[in-house]
Specification:
The structure is a homotetramer.
Chain A: H1 6-31, H2 34-41, H3 45-48, H4 55-77, H5 83-91, H6 98-113, H7 117-144, H8 153-173, H9 180-194, H10 203-206
The structure holds a DNA duplex (21 and 21 nucleotides).
DNA sequence: CATGAATGAGCTTTCATTCAT
DNA sequence: CATGAATGAAAGCTCATTCAT
């Protein structure tokens, strides 16, 4: 009998979560069946319970994983020195397919959080982290003169978060905003919301039919 | 000889939908059970099927009803002549309780739309209407000099929609934004995004000390 | 308030039964829904119970009605003096459409009788009558020299009954035997089973090329 | 690492079908409940669906199984060289209990076939096989001089089938024909329908109260 | 570690029947 | 007489979870 290797165990957990992610995006947390996740992860239903306590536990892990990814993405962004460009890129559209699945999951997680205390807790913990990170980044931008110094960084971190979610919802409500159109919108938002007064004014109308991707 | 009264029938349907709304907000579309809805509507499980073809049909009707309400709300808003103030009020927080239930439903509907073709169709049909309405309203505001004339009204209608959804998501992710804090955020967004250059600049710093949790 | 007119009442019962017959033939006793029967009879579900105690009661009446028709048909046949020809006509195919519905009902009733005591009783009561009638008719035929005098009329009445049912089953199992092919088979059966020795021998080979499907 | 054993799976399927057969005979296809079948097969209601897609699928399998048995029975019969005796034995009464259940199922299947396309297809496929088999057997009998050479074997195969069904219906309609009386009838039918002219004539009346079983 | 057979509670839906009007 | 809204028991089926192997 082999002793369990914690590394292998964690690796398998991540594999299963990846499979679960596909199922959850397709069918939602409630709609996805454990059997489907097992099939997608190429394991037997019984074996799943060596890695997770149950479906609920997978959902929690999924919320955790997803929020961790958001934190990572913002953290990565925060390393760039051109604040506005970095934010635009971070909120803009990216690899198609992958992106839409992420969008679906993000909205599903918020919906779940509105009635599932455990998921809500996970979400809030990360939201706090993200906002602190964003606030710091915005203050850096203000110091660099890239962000309007009048803004309250704390409040604006919430705004960035809200806009992030809003764009995802919009891309579901109106498929036109899954592609280049979305980037247009992002740039407008970023510039008008964050840029110092001097930099603005012109781009709003000029962006009509501007660059994308 | 009693003939079916379509009025009574429609009334009962609305009653059931109201009950279903409470259940869906609490447990989600999948999590809510038909039996619960029946209990909430004070009808027997079998009788529900005199008014709806099935659970799916209730979900569709719920999406329809909710989007219709959104349209109505924006339409009402569009009758006011002070564009910025009207938008601020429209996106701001209101009666607690009612509001949060609506928020939950709104997010649930978007999540459902991302994998349910019927709901997606309903949503898109109304989104088109709302955007046309908003675009018209923004153009009116531009004519009145209340909205930055540089803005592309069409694109900005999408932005207002995205922000609406984003605020709802935020209020789930961070409960601090369910109350007055939300109004603060809304005003900032409205002013920076929509107001002509001359009107802006001052209010942003006033929000000091707005961090959540 | 009008007193119930027993004549009208009985008429309506028959109308309902006719409608029920169509439903039962299409969907079977269990498969047919009371609501369908009501719709077919152009009455409301509640009103049905003025004429029948319940579905079971309709099934009983249907069995009764159907067996009564069989009795009537054989009685009518028994008035004809050419025994063999009368029997051939009686067992042969007739108006399409009508006939097949009757066939379906007949088999359904037998199937039901095998597990429903009430229906079994109804069926047996009529079977006794039919067999007595047939036995008498066969004896008449024997007296007239049209039926083999060696036959035991009592036993052969059962045989005629069995063959009647068998042909109906066959017409379901092999649709080829719903039309003229069936008549061919009937004539063969009648002649070989019932005719005196002298009359037989010739017609059998004449049917060459009668395979089905 | 256990792999699914198709043999065990098929065995369990047959066990379940046997249990279903008892339920269907007692209550009919529609009347029998899935829960009853599960109880009779000593499995849980959910587990049934590892072996069958649903109730409909069990009914189809039952029709298939029953018709396969009929084919097997006739095939076995066709191996015997005394054609008339073999047919008499084949159509006659046998082990009580078992037999009646088979009779009920046979009639139920025909009734179902009259309105269920899938069952009808199954039935017809086997009917074709049985008729071919019977026709061949009758021709063999004709060669051996045991069957009237004037008969058209093809048509008479249908006749044998019809008589088989007719006897089953009769045994339901008149319980007297479940036992020895039935054998009497069978012998008469066989002799008169199939035997060459020379062999016949006497037995018809002589059978009054004759031997059985 | 891994399997998949087995469980059973609980889901949505159906439908014979009742009853206020 | 007649209606159809209302009932509620029970049906078929699903699926998260357990367990013998």
């Amino acid at each position: 009998m082999r002793k369990i290797d914690p590394r292998r165990h964690e690796l398998k957990r991540q594999e299963i979560l990846a499979a679960a992610g596909r199922c959850f995006a397709r069918d939602g947390f409630r709609g996805a069946r454990v059997a489907d996740i097992c099939a997608a992860a190429h394991i037997s239903p019984g074996h799943l319970y060596h890695y997770f306590d149950g479906k609920e536990s997978i959902i929690d892990a999924m919320a955790e994983r997803n929020m961790a990814r958001v934190v990572r993405r913002f953290a990565q962004m925060a390393r760039q020195t051109n604040t506005l460009r970095a934010l635009s890129a971070g909120l803009g559209a990216s690899r198609r397919g992958q992106r839409h699945r992420r969008t679906q999951l993000a909205v599903e997680i918020v919906a779940e959080a509105s009635r599932n205390a455990a998921v809500a807790r996970i979400l809030r913990a990360h939201v706090r982290g993200v906002r602190r990170l964003l606030a710091g980044y915005l203050r850096d931008g203000q110091r660099r003169g890239q962000i309007d110094p009048q803004l309250d960084a704390d409040l604006f971190s919430a705004m960035v978060l809200a806009v992030t979610q809003g764009l995802q919802c919009l891309s579901i409500m109106d498929p036109a905003f899954r592609g280049p159109q979305r980037n247009l919108l992002v740039q407008l938002l970023i510039v008008r919301l964050l840029a110092p007064q001097a930099q603005r004014g012109t781009p709003a109308r000029a962006t009509k039919g501007s660059s994308s991707t």
